Amino acid sequence: MSTEYEMVVGLEVHSQLLTRTKLFCRCENRFGAPPNSLTCPVCLGHPGVLPVLNEEAVRLGIRLGLALECSIHHRSVFDRKHYFYPDLPKGYQISQFTYPLLTGGLLTVRSGEGTREVRIHRIHMEEDAGKNMHAGIRDASHVDLNRSGVPLLEIVSEPDIRTPEEAVDYLKKLRQILRSIGVSDGNMEEGSFRCDANVSLRPRGGSVFGTKVEIKNMNSFRFVHKALLFECDRQAQILDRGERVVSETRLFDSSTGRTLPMRSKEEALDYRYFPEPDLPPILLDPAWIEEERARLPELPQERVSRLSREFGIREEDAEALVLEEDLSRYFEEASEAIQEFAGKGGWPVEQGTLRLVNFLLSEVLREWNRKGAGILVGPLSAREVSHLVSMVVEEQISLNQAKDVYAVCVESLKSPREVVAEKNLFQESGDEALGGWIAEVMAENPGEVQSYREGKERVFGFLVGQVMKKSAGKANPQKVNRMLKEALSR
Amino acid sequence: MSGLFTTLESFVKGRDERAFSIEEAVRHYLGRIEGLDSGLGAFLTVNPNAINRARQLDNRLARNPAHSPFYGYPIAIKDNMHVLGLPTTCASRMLANFRPLENATVVERLLKAGAVILGKTNMDEFAMGSSTENSAMGITRNPWDTERVPGGSSGGSAVAVSADLAPLSLGSDTGGSIRQPAAFCGVLGLKPTYGRVSRYGLVAFSSSLDQIGPFSRCAQDALELTVLVSGPDGRDMTVRDRDPQEMVREFDGSVRGMTIGIPEEFFGDGLDPEVAASLEQAREVWSAEGAVFKPIRLPSARFGVNVYYLIATSEAASNLSRYDGVRYGYRSLSSQTLKDMYQNARREGFGPEVKRRILLGTFALSAGYQDQYYRKAQQVQSLIREEFDRAFHEVDLVFAPTTPTPAFRFGEKLSDPLAMYLSDIYTISANLAGLPALSTPSWPTRSGLPVGAQLIGPSWSEGRLLRAARVLEEAVGFRTPPIAVQATGGKTL
B98, B313, B319, B358: which to substitute to probe chain A, counting the most A Cβ within 10 Å? Predict the structure, then answer.
């Protein structure tokens, strides 16, 4: 008798910006430095200091606004948001409340077989807080203020998301855009891309929103998915019992996969926002916005369309490549090399491109996830890998050999050519050599030849194996199959 | 006084003619502080490095002739501005042991010009008050009557110049904190246009109203010091790009042909008759010199104190949030939890007036009340601004009392915050409107207490204000309090 519910999700993303220095002081904006080594009186909140706005952060905000087609406001205002916490040195965070830099905007996400347009509500600039550290310290907590004052864009979506999958795709696409336009490195482990979710349920087809719960502390896409699923079940059970969902903030616990209450709305803080008197409003020169528009690179969605159009690859494949921008660049470079090899070898380009895409999305992507972008350069440059793929197309080596070669290359940092030569792997496809080995095998195994000709096709595999053995594994297996069948049928 | 010099000009002459060394000049003032300040309490810290610096400056002077008039010039700084090497206490337990990591921009500019910091002066805690009685470090006495307050919050800086413990000093003015003590102590005090002087290194009270300015014996010196510390600063985005030299250009000349507005709202009930009489005499001086007086209306100014105590306290509650005992400042060691630690630090570290304003400001900004208090106050602030703008279409300057009464007695208003707040009734409007204003000595009362004449001008008109002040000071003359003369057996200047 349980009602069928529809999940309603809005996401708030905090993205750190790739500026050289912090938002209001000239301390370095960098992750991983020794605690409190990247601080100054301003980001330590000393008495008497004043914030000075980093224009580069505003420029990056404009870029995101252009990429998401937001309204970019020519006048926006910083406000102070007050609360006491040891990681917040001034007792307030400089943020934007009433007049944010950006409002509106759109992001298209995958929804089942189709797509869904998720509207952006607003995007504002603010400073990050420091970090409290409790682990491994007895009877004390430490505070690291390296992160204090790091520039953030808070990207708030409308409650347009309906499934955990859409939520994850929204985050992936958003992160991809942030990275492609140089606004953020989107690194979730280092906290440069963080997400909170507002989740509610309503009867499917309903138009009124249910009571929403805010979920924090989901620091990977997998956890976002898990947390939303859990929260959906939890709320559904409450509603099924005829009870009401409590408006509250909950924390996701990755060790149990559950969400746990953090604070209720009654305990909600009064932030006492008011305009930051130390910073004049940001006034944007429209010419600056146009300048940034002209300098905007190709956006991920545009790139997907272009790759699939230009290289004739499937849109899903193009999307998979574009998810990692470095990989899609690598693909483009490799494709050009493929064209060259195809021209020389006299085979159709499409055949090589198809093999290249498959190779990149399986072998290269796997190693890249394992080892990082270092494997895309030097002996494993796009040109070297397309050469390896060409050898498969030209049947000089088998696909399995190519995979082995690639794995060796990654470990040894040698080029595929070197490894193929060292292993003496070049596949034998010559009629003469193959014909010779086949004749020898047939002569040495008259009984099996006889059985095959009497209909026992099982022995065919054995005979192929013998030929491969004779060739020390270098015979082209497809061609051996074909020639052996011919010879046996004679 | 012993007569080394009286003005910046005479200092430069004496210095360049080698009538005295910089060390002698600095020793002279340190000696006066030592002799007189135990009875006055103007200084919280005397700079132990002052003589060393003076010697270094003397040595360099022997090799190169000095360029800046401030080279070797001794000066006192209110204890809410950072001077590297000295504590910045803001006269609060909270910051009793705080040492800044850098100089305030104004101090940086003074030091670059070669000035010698004599020390840091007493004030109301975090600049909140009008009598310097709110200092956690003790009271400062008015040199004209040591049973009376010097005014506040920059009481120490006013007394330092009045008693000639320093030839010049810097204070800060949020609602009258330079002009009111200047009036009570018989010196000139200038609050520049908001955005004229960098606030970097000034511990914030109310960020949109605070402005640093000089105390001096004469308009010329106030001009020189203001010019020196003014102008764009990469560390304060609220400083506007105005050329400080425009003040010098506008300083020259007389008041002939100047139209001075008299707002009736500032001369009504509550104004002490002796103060009114003194100001009438001042008016006659300007009239005689060719200025024209014209009655004007500033009807919203009467809400100034109300508006001020909402806006200034809201910003103060925010600015003082950082004093939590976590990174610096007072920390109570008895705390068990984080919340305890915050509460104890603030309970024990702040004095009663600071707490009163934090509570008021927190309330004015809180959810549900912001519209009726903070926002409403902002709207009235806009009205006050507009009324001044309109007035300055008709007049060049506005003339008003600085304070309703001369200096009051210790304790007289301490238990009645509202009465205390009303002592700033005439000065607050200029802060709310962001306008430059000064208080310059008029004739004293029969009992010899100083009276201040206030001039308020349109934005960036400090030069004009000081020009008018100079005309009055030529007629009134600078008076040194007897206590400061007797103490060293010197003569009144």
Answer: B319
- Among A45-59, A452-466, B59-73, the range with the most confident prediction by mean pLDDT is A45-59
CA–CA gap between residue B187 and residue A460 (Å, rounded)? 114
- Catalytic annotation present for B153: yes
Is residue B3 within 8 Å of residue B20, measured between CB atoms? no
Tokens encoding A392: 């498969």
> Using one digit for the tens of pLDDT, what is the confidence trace for B277-335?
999 999 999 999 999 999 999 999 999 999 999 999 999 999 999 999 989 999 988 88
Distances (CA, A) of A143 to A35, A37, A131, B344: 8, 12, 6, 20
Tokens 């009877």 correspond to: A139
Domain B8-253+437-486: CATH architecture, name and number where available: Alpha-Beta Complex (3.90)
ipTM: 0.95
Token readout for B216 is 């001096």
Q: Is B355 annotated as catalytic?
A: no
- Judged by a CB distance cut-off of 8 A, whether residue A45 touches chain B is yes
Q: Which two tokens stand for residue B486?
A: 């007797």
Report pLDDT digits (tens) over B66-102.
679 999 999 999 999 999 999 999 999 999 999 999 9
Structural domains in chain A plus CATH codes: 5-292 (no CATH), 298-422 (no CATH), 431-489 (1.10.10.410)
pLDDT 10s digits, A291-315: 999 999 999 989 999 999 999 999 8
